[in-house]
Amino acid sequence: AQKITQTQPGMFVQEKEAVTLDCTYDTSDPSYGLFWYKQPSSGEMIFLIYQGSYDQQNATEGRYSLNFQKARKSANLVISASQLGDSAMYFCAMREISSGNTPLVFGKGTRLSVIA
Amino acid sequence: KAGVTQTPRYLIKTRGQQVTLSCSPISGHRSVSWYQQTPGQGLQFLFEYFSETQRNKGNFPGRFSGRQFSNSRSEMNVSTLELGDSALYLCASSAGVVAGKAEQYFGPGTRLTVT
Asked: What is the distance in angstroms between the Cα of A108 and the nearest Cα belonging to chain B?
């Protein structure tokens, strides 16, 4: 069964600094997708970035990049130049693809606090 | 393009009652998924509907049910409410799978409190 682990319940980062949020996963499916979502206090989940298991390069979206290490089964999110508005919960999620349209499985999340 | 909308945003019910939550997906999206989010259990998948058919179901009791209409709008129903059903219920829509990637766009959620 697929599993997502986020070991950092909370993180602090100084404004304008970079921060890495950890995510490890477990699956036996060779084809899968990894997602990161941001959830501000308002509750809405905001899609940030996607990495496919067969993608050769690490995904990047603006200030977000995904450090994908397939052999270690890790998919860490890197946020560069942190802003106060980045303070939120961050969730790593995975979907197995070979077996069809399986649902997203989420980690427990990391609460990021950006300090001025 | 309008995002995913959920109604109502907040709801207070008492034990034993039933509740219906509504979700309107992004125009053109045919897949709607529902998730329950609680502090203890995190985000848990409830079910997914695609073209009016339930395509996936999570591990929840039969008190939780859903449906999808021809316009892709979806409703979920919880009967005989329990205190443990208090949660944020999130709906997500998706256009489908493209090269294995299926972004899900979430709505703002419905916060249900059961007293």
From this structure: 6
Interchain proximity A47–B55, CB inside 8 Å:
no
Strand (E) positions, A1-116? 3-5, 10-14, 19-21, 24-26, 32-39, 46-52, 60-61, 64-69, 74-79, 88-96, 105-106, 110-115
Determine the pLDDT at residue B99: 46
Burial class (CB in 10 A: 0-12, 13-18, 19+), A6: buried
Question: Are A48 and A74 a contacting pair, CB within 8 Å?
Answer: no
Q: Give B52→chain A minimum CA distance, Å.
A: 15
Give, as one character, the DSSP assignment of residue B80: S
List, for residues A10-38, the tens digit of each pLDDT value: 999 999 999 999 999 999 999 999 999 99
Residues of B within 8 A of A54 (CB-CB) are 100
Nearest to B33 among A37, A43, A103 (CB): A103
Q: List chain B residues with CB under 8 Å of A111.
A: none
Reported as a single tens digit per residue, the pLDDT across A33-70 is 999 999 999 888 999 999 999 998 999 999 999 999 99
* Nearest in space to B31 (alpha carbons), one of B55, B13, B15, B8: B55
Coil, strand, or helix at residue B110?
strand
